[in-house]
Amino acid sequence: MTTVTSSRGNTDVVTARRTKSHDVSGIISLFSPVTEDLFGRIDVTYLLELSNLALTLCNEKNEVIAHAAFLDYPNWNITDQAEWEPFLHENYTNNKCTPLNTLFMHLFVAKEDYAAGCSQEIVRRAFILLPELQFILLFIPPEDRLGFSHSELDMGNVFERIMPVPGSPMERGFTLLACPRHRCHPQLYVRQARMEDYDDLMLIWTSQSEALKETYGEYLLVDLIEREGEENQAAVCEVDGTAVGFMSLCSDVNVSLFQECFDLGPFHGLCKPHPEDILKMPGRPSIQEDKDENSQTSEKPKPVSSLNLEHVPGADAAVQKDRAVTVSQTELLYETRSLDFLHYAFNVFPDRDLCVILVPHHVPEFPLIRSFVRAVPSCTSRLGRELYVFHRAGLLTSFNVRKAATSDLQGVKVLIKTLSLNERIWNDSKIFTEARRDPDGMPVQAFVAEVLDQIVGVSVTRDEMDIEYIRSHYNIEDFIHFNYHQQEEHGHLCHFVLNPVFHHYTKYFLKEILRLGHKSSLYYPIYPEYVEGKFQHPCAHSLTSALHYMAPVRPRRQIVYPLQGLGINAPSEQVSKDQLKYSLNHTNRKLVLESKVCINTRIVVVGASDVGISFLETLIFWPHLKFNNLTLISIHGLPGKDPQSSKYRRFLINSHCFNDEDYAQMSLCSWVNVVVGKMTGINRSAKYVVVSKEKKVPYDYLVLCTGQSYQALAPMGADISEVTSQWPQRYTQKVPSNHFTLNDAQDCLEAALWLEENFISSRGNVIVYGNTIDIYTTVETLLSFGIDGSRIHLVQTPLSSASPCLADTTLECTVGEALAEAGVAVHPDSVLAQWGQSDHGLITWAAFTTASNLLQLQCSAFFSFADRTLDYETFKAISDACLVFDGRVVIDAKFHTNDASIRAAGPLTKFSRRYFRDELTHSNFNSKEIGFELAASMLSLFDSTPKPSSEPPEGSDRLIPIYRRCKVQGGVLPGGYNYLHISKPGIPMPLDVEHDMHDHGMEIVTGEAGHGNYFRMHFSRYNMVDSITCFSKEPFPISNYICLYGQHEHLLNDLYYRWRAGQLTDLYSYFREPWSLAIYHDRFIDLQKELRQTLMSEQVPGEPTATEQHPEQKPGPPSLREPVLRYLRHHRAHLPMFAPTDAYRLLSAAGSQGLKPGRAGHSGSSGSPTPTQELS
Fold it and tell me: Which of 15, 300, 759, 764 could be 755's S-S partner, Cβ–Cβ 3.0 to 4.6 Å?
């Protein structure tokens, strides 16, 4: 916060922040007649879309009192944006302005009388946010056109005039004003520290002494100053004779320690290059790590051993180096000049080319560190610090970006020779220099970055021609307003390579690509690993150095269209086409200079369950934050990496939280380190996880999301009395190779491959054992493999609860009939008593205890779904770590265990007994929602963005949180029936019990289970959809039906009225009608919220509503009609089956009763109201 003073002497406390779209009206209110004279006619929204930097000053009431917009080319369209540098040097001599260090002010407005103080504060803030920025320029019309001189501008003497060369057309055209950085932030004088500086430095030191003591122990400032010598140097920077900053340096560095703990390939291992150096270092195959943004070569990290820093030879030197640089302190007022220290550092150590700094994981990035390159740590490194590296050449400011020329090809070849994709980059660079177009005829552009006439970077772009697909399939409008961007302004980034020495110039390289290429946005897709010929995870694509400066874009949920039924009303092919899914990364002019907040805290997630994936997804896509140290520990690595395994996922029921397309559009491997293995121990005091009894993965926060899994059960013997008292028990010996417990897609794949190789062509039996719904999906999958039903034995265990596999007994009977028809033998209420094994350890027969006799079956393959619980090794790790365990891991309402650093969520957890709801666990809720809420609860630890403060209700900490998303189960059951059950969160109950409840609500059923067209919808007593059951021979759009959950029956085209009137005979066809497609749209929920807020704001107690006052007005009051029309107009690409909103207005003016859907009319049941009638 800063205080600004008006010309009348009034003061106001203001806060500077980046401008948001909701500031537009406040900015426009500050316009004055002089504004247009100085800057021309301005469309503020369009200007904000193109601004590289836009700042707003707000007072304590959050009112906009000043605004300024800065772009990287001159205002008033004086010259082409790509040609302003030679234009400036031609017309103005002795200027040092370059695209790297210069921005142009395109707009400045301020509250009356506050312009002078606000202009000074905004300019000061601009220089703070952009350390490389040295000049802010402003072109204004000449005095004879303005009617006053530049010195009369009420901008606080921020600018000074730059005189053009004699005879220049700019003498009469425009006046150039400039504000150099040194007017706001003079360069600091750096010198050797002396004992006389102690008192000045203690003012800085004391304010952070507690944090320094906690991190580095008991060190005194005086010790650092007195220790000066050949290996140790201390420096201060001073202003007007007062020391305002301090840095301690040490040249004795433990390089071997750093090489073990970090990937230092981009910096040649922090060693001087030698011709005999081995550049490629072997990596550990069991540890998959993402390549961070600075990885520009194909090297892999070295194997990492567990290290204890206190007992490593030479570790003291490393600590001293850490302390020497990291303890550098600068007054906040001068922090942006902290880079001045590095000039002095390399002068006192002229034989050193690199400066490194170790920073604790929890320390936020400060201005100095943003110029360094972060080294990628091994996820098993226990050094406990982040390593940042800066090369001497990084101080050079002659960084220049230009279009590539044929003469640059040799320099590009040298630059990329160590890259895994060097041939592709080389070929694309040659295409630009030779033809300017790719083989498809698409225009291609290539740019090079050079320093001192040496090529240090190269980039290749082309026009993005798939922009309509991107707009319809990704939430790109969270970042840009499409209406303000021309088709040719969207660019596709094909390659981006930059020498790690100049990594801190990456955002300026991207900015220049946009400016020189006349683009406003850049897009970069990452395809999944299994897609041949495409860039895949970061180890295989060239853009790793720029991903940090790009934003991952969330995919959008798509409507499943009944294309044949829509005919000419179907959406365009760009919207509805099915193509390879990819993860999309994006940057644009207004984002390119906006740095994200880097979070180096080590967050380790155990378990690739739906909860764990949802947690990681939320962190990855969170705006303004970049998590550098996310690690996933999983038995089979990341899900979705092998489409072949997903094909066999049908063995198990599907929760429909994530599918292969979702995994492809997330590209978790770009942001998450993966350790393949099982958690076997937790050391809470040292804060590390033991993986597979050998690797140690350190953490700052540990998140347990393993869920529950099917376990191999021990045979119980033939005594029925022992069976009932002791069943189930864990099998402790080696599990036979033909015994399968399926828990994920990889398990399903391994089982399918074994069956194909060893079983299908043989004559043995397969036993499916258990009593969950997975036994049905597994039997159907076995039948689909061509296995004869007579070879399949379905052995059902006694029900552990009152709930059957399928809550609807009608469906149970139909499935039973399908099993009998297929020849599958069903054996109810049986418990595994014994099994026999061959010499090779395979199960050859199995015996089961029933209520009447002992059942013995020949067995060639055994699938067990009898016991789903916490894995034993996971349980032992949790128990040995002394985490509270009561059948499951005990947590509170905010996911905390009894360890403040360990969170847990999902089916492996239960709520503490103090909530008095032992029967309710996370198993009863939507796993994706649980993962999101888990991430949201932890984001408050890292996100400093101010949020509206609201006190929680008293006693809310003693209540279990309310989760609202539906639970989903889907799969293919015996008989080829496609099954879907959508239910409200909570404890499930059988359908007959649900019917007996006094507040049962109502239900609508069409079709019959035996005919394969069964559709059941249940409505609560408030007429809201709270469960859906589909049982059909034909596939149906599951994602569409999930959108129906929680909707009122009136919204569903007066569904109950039509049901009672006998107009509905098939709900499947009813929900394929065009009117319903608007409800399936991913933005429909926003429309509902807007309409609800409108109704709430207009409702006055005791007075009739507008509809009641004017019942003849259809289809509702204008306040509700306009949002609906705006919704249909904005999403016209997705909803072309609705008539254009302009046509609707014409129909309304002519007295029409409402909008007719589509050009082909209504295709559903007779008498249905129109879509817009219903929506409004």
Answer: 759
